[in-house]
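To: structure desk
From: M.T.
Subject: fold request, one chain
Message: Could you run this one when you get a chance? Sequence is below, nothing fancy, just the single chain.
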Amino acid sequence: MNVYAQRLSQVIARITAAAESAHREPSDIALLAVSKQQPASAVRAMRALGQRSFGENRAVEGIAKQAELRDLDLVWHFIGPVQSNKTRDIAANFDWVQSVDREKILRRLAMHRPSSLPPLNICLQVNIDNEAQKSGAPPAAVEALAAIAQQLPEIRLRGLMCIPRHSADPDETRASFERLRSLHGQLCRAGYPLDTLSMGMSGDLEIAAACGSTMVRVGTDLFGPRPAANDSRNAETQNGETHQ
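Reply: Done. Structure tokens follow.
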């Protein structure tokens, strides 16, 4: 517990310092703890320290973890690629899906969202750097997806998410985040009531905060290194998520 407390304190301190440096309120930047490949006990330890929102990128793993933690008040975000055959499970068990990148998935999530639950919170994932190997909608396709989401009562469109091109140059990362912020602003001006800009991970959250992020997704810096798992690591690399 002491190790988790130290890590959480350090990440919160980074978010606070980044917000203040950007003349923003730290409370305007939410922390999503990326718990993929971590045991349920780690989530329980973080919840005891006050962290409530957790992100998973595999439906089977995330749902199994939820079953172990039913006694806790948690908010679950799905942040990995959404497969068509998993939309029913994801729609029924998660509060947010941050990785919607095409109409088929959007409509299937809406169709499978149980009527007993509130609308599913959605972020549209944008392939902001147009990388061939990465998930996400092309920037030019995002407004059409937003328009469809607005028509689905089972969906609540909250905002945009991106994973920028991995680069050692902070100016390149900053440019990617600025493009997403510009697209977010464009949609807001068009009348879409977006309140979430999900960008920034363990290695670049300070840049993201300076560029207007309202939610940073942090895994390694909170939980420590993930257990070695070649198959999942390769899958994450294809979706550009190894740095959360």
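Reply (cont.): The chain has ten helices and eight strands. Let me know if you need anything else for the meeting.
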